[in-house]
């Protein structure tokens, strides 16, 4: 095993750590790790990301449910339309995208490049949200009455995002749960982990019909990520996640800029 691969496996612990602390953000790391460290093709990397983030989040959500931190009614309202959207996009939309996606004279935009560019743009948006700590203290549901129709529409949009680029969307889900469901931030984080778990696993199931997977690589990486989420959930008792998120936001921004420059060059 090379030093680069050792670095990649060590980074998998960070994936789980981030999910455990912040209720999302793990998929922002997994795709770049798979593409640039392990040289996995971009589309297959999004499949691997869905499995790793889904399995890791399931373990975390079991702990949150056991400790009664998850709002199951809100989870259902958000997750049902979301996993329909993510399954359809992984099962039909992503395989149907042509390759190359766009061609004009000597300029060719491959399917893999398009996914990586889109992923990098999402990373920049996520980094901005984390650096600015864009979490409303209260919103439309400040009266304690969740806006279920709005949650469902947002679930559809997040599912499309998850299905297209393999990102769980935790940086979008947590603010929406605060804004539209009136959940306290810590409860929104716990609920977000369960939603991400459902979205990611459903998206992964949409892929297994047309994808060959390297389980000898995927399972050890996932196992280390699960170790990371236990560390993250433990540290969350002592460390304010918002302070860590700002530093992580700058890190994500640097990685996004690297991805764009790497693809352009």
TrEMBL record:
PANTHER family on file: MEMBRANE TRANSPORTER PROTEIN MJ0441-RELATED, MEMBRANE TRANSPORTER PROTEIN YJNA-RELATED
GO CC entries: plasma membrane
Membrane disposition: Multi-pass membrane protein
Keyword match Cell membrane: yes
Key words of the record: Cell membrane, Membrane, Transmembrane, Transmembrane helix
Protein name: Probable membrane transporter protein
Compartment(s) where it occurs, according to its Swiss-Prot or TrEMBL record: Cell membrane; Membrane
InterPro entries linked to this entry: TM_pro_TauE-like, TSUP/Inactive_protease-like
Membrane-spanning segments: 12-36, 42-62, 74-94, 114-131, 151-182, 188-205, 217-236
Stated family: Belongs to the 4-toluene sulfonate uptake permease (TSUP) (TC 2.A.102) family.
